[in-house]
Amino acid sequence: MDKFMTMAYEQALKSYNEGGLPIGSVLVKNGELVAVGHNMRVQSNDPLAHAEMTCLKNAGRIKSYKGCTIYSTLMPCYMCSGTIVQFGIKEVIVGEDENFKGGKEFMEAHGVKVTNVNDERCIALMAKFIAEKPELWNEDIGELD
């Protein structure tokens, strides 16, 4: 498997082991690692601290996202998809969308190339988390009453 997806998966595991949602992200520019991040909603009590947002925050200011690819273990939600479109990131590689469909069509409609690699590690870890903590998962995706 791609080394950057492996890094994203390692970030997802880190979050899972911290009691958070097992979603990891990596930002690459022109083939070079820029930043990593993982979902920190639980750990930091921050509803906006999704993996992609944390990764981008860890990257700091980047004058241009031309040549950037963002890797995520799970298909980005609409909030993260909107940020990807806003920043002009033109490529997203995701580990899976079996557990969450996210904003693929939105990103593609805005010129982002989205590649799903159907990584069994990502699928299994997310499914395990959803089975273990369905209320926390539903909170994350905004489906609690």
How would you explain this protein's 3D organization?
Helix 4 links the parallel strand 3 and strand 4. Strands 2-1-3-4-5 form a 5-stranded mixed sheet. The chain is globular and about 40 Å long. Helix 1 packs parallel to helix 6 (120-132) and helix 6 crosses helix 7. The chain has helices at residues 3-17, 41-44, 51-59, 78-87, 104-109, 120-132, 134-140, and strands spanning 24-29, 32-38, 68-72, 91-94, 113-116. Helix content is 44%, strand content 18%. With 145 residues, it is an alpha/beta fold. It contains 7 helices and 5 strands, in the order αββααβαβαβαα. The protein starts with a helix and ends in a 5-residue tail after the last helix. The mean pLDDT is 96.
Largest sheet: 5 strands, mixed
Distance between the termini: 39 Å
Strand fraction equals 15-25%
Unreliable spans = none
Class per helix and strand makeup: alpha/beta
Number of helices: 7
Q: Specify Rg, calculated over alpha carbons.
A: 14 Å
Structural shape:
globular
Order of helices and strands: HEEHHEHEHEHH
Q: Percentage of helical residues?
A: 40-55%
- The number of distinct β-strands equals 5
Question: How is the largest sheet built, in terms of strand order?
Answer: 2-1-3-4-5
